[in-house]
Amino acid sequence: MRGNHSNNRAFVRHAGNLAPFVLTCEHAHGRLPPGVSTTARDRAALRAHWGWDIGAWALTRAIAAELRTGATGGRWSRLWIDLNRPAGDPMLVRKTIEGHPLSWNAGVDEREIERRYAAIHVPYHREVDRQIARRLERGVRPVLLAVHTYTPRLNGRLRTFDAGVLYDENRGEAMRLAAALRGAGLEVRYNQPYSGRRGLMYSIDRHGRHYRLPCLELEINQALFSRPGKPTRLARAVAHGLRDIEARTRGRR
Questions:
Q1: Which DSSP state fits 85?
Q2: How confident is the model at residue 242 (pLDDT cuts 50, 70, 90)?
Q3: DSSP bridge partners of 13
Q4: Residue 140 CB coordination number (10 Å)
Q5: Which of 25, 87, 102, 191 could form a disulfide with 195 if both were Cys (CB 3.0 to 4.6 A apart)?
Q6: Considering only CA atoms, which of 151, 132, 145, 120 is closest in space to residue 220?
Q7: Closest Cα partner for 188 from 174, 202, 199, 198?
Q8: What is the CATH number for 164?
Q9: Looking at the predicted structure, is the pLDDT value of residue 156 above 80?
Q10: β-strand partners of 43
Q11: Number of C-alpha atoms within 13 angstroms, CB side, residue 197?
């Protein structure tokens, strides 16, 4: 597709766009690089919420279409390397899922982790930096949003709310995005099911802090994707909230 490209590190849609929004989706796919052998149980983990954020990339693209902006998504499963974790994090390359050893990570050592980090993690974040920098060079200060989804049941506990808005410093922006989602009929919570104040929105916070830009992470309950028409309405609500944030941010300059 014209204006889009993919490589070993990321999927990038509409890379030449200069709209005042930068969207990312770190857990876009549940694939492994070619040639990696797997067992049937391994493949089940890759297909499940452990391997990727189900529905997140489709939602990211829908939001991007509403905003007429670009989006960057991770090309490989977070079970290969997690783009939303920093170097040195024990979950950067996890070796087990629910006690089941992952065959491709069972014997991984520090050198292999470093290789994956250099080959996948570094170029992904460099691409996000590039998307931000080319806007800033042209006088556009974007709003940053990372799109994620969560399983409605984890470790036997139900998560019945519809969406979480994660933030650290950008409380006002989080409130505006949450208001737009509530206007679409969603039950929204702040810093749930994970907290942006505990380092659990690493990717977008890393870029937001570096460039001093408003940044949030959106977490959506995967159960919503079974409801007809809900993802489309959700994308419109997110776009509405981001436009409000961008307009207010621009008005303070």
A1: S
A2: very high
A3: 71
A4: 16
A5: 191
A6: 151
A7: 174
A8: 3.40.630.40
A9: no
A10: none
A11: 9
State how far the Cα of 70 lies from the Cα of 23, in Å rounded to an integer: 7
**Which 3 state secondary structure label does DSSP give 129?**
helix
Distances in whole angstroms, Cα of residue 110 to Cα of each of 86, 97, 143, 157: 14, 20, 35, 34
Return the residue matching tokens 């409000």: 244
Q: Name the domain count of the chain.
A: 1
pTM, 2 dp? 0.93
Structure tokens at 187: 């039950």
Specify whether the CB–CB gap between 157 and 132 falls below 8 A.
no
Q: Are 69 and 14 in contact (CB under 8 A)?
A: yes
Q: What are the residues whose beta carbons fall under 8 Å from the beta carbon of 160, sequence distance 6 or more?
A: 152, 187
Q: Which domain holds residue 87?
A: 5-251
Mean pLDDT for the chain overall: 92
- The closest alpha carbon to 217, from 185, 182, 193, belongs to 193
Q: Is 35 helix (H, G, I), strand (E, B) or coil?
A: coil
Q: Give the Cα separation of 132 and 117 in Å (integer).
A: 21
Q: Distance between alpha carbon 51 and the CA centroid of its chain, in Å?
A: 13
Q: Are 235 and 65 in contact (CB under 8 A)?
A: yes
Is the CB of residue 190 less than 8 Å from the CB of residue 178? Answer: yes
Q: What percent of the chain has pLDDT over 70?
A: 95
| Spatial CB neighbours of 236, under 8 Å, sequence gap ≥ 6 | 66, 184
pLDDT at 95 over 60: yes
Q: How far is CA 188 from the centre of its chain?
A: 18
Interhelix angle 230-251/171-183, nearest 10 degrees: 140
Indicate the pLDDT class of residue 65, thresholds 50, 70 and 90.
very high
Q: Which of 170, 213, 207 is nearest to 190 (CA)?
A: 170
What is the predicted pLDDT for the residue at 3? Answer: 47
